[in-house]
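Review form for a predicted model. The reviewer records the input and the model, then writes brief findings.
Reviewer: anonymous (R2)
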Amino acid sequence: MRFGRVNVLAGALGLLVGSMGGLALGATFDRYATKDGFHLLTLARFYLREGHSHTMPLALLNLSVGLLVDRLALGDAWKRACSWLAVAAFIMPLGLAAKGAAGAAPDFPPIGMIGVVGFVGAALLLAIGAWRAE
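Model under review:
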């Protein structure tokens, strides 16, 4: 495993952190997200929840990249780029959670977009490398 090790580690860590975030949100759900039997969700809690829920599929993306990147029909530089773009995709849920932690300020910088670029780039390189493989 030349290029995928970092992705397997990032994916496993992402699954752990994402599930811990879900446990924390779930443990505080009744206290902070319901009132008189109605489901209420503040904007800050919404962004925290989105950070949690976006972490899980990006962890699976990283596990997939980690297991497949060395088999792709790409040069070493493109394999490395695919690997690091997949890791960079974690910036999206981190940005969402940071916005929630900051109280969902409307002027919060859109740092999560860096993660979107990482996700799209990694997925594109995975597709290209798989398409070219024999």
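Findings: The two ends are 20 Å apart (CA to CA).
Further findings: The mean pLDDT is 90.
Recommendation: see findings above.
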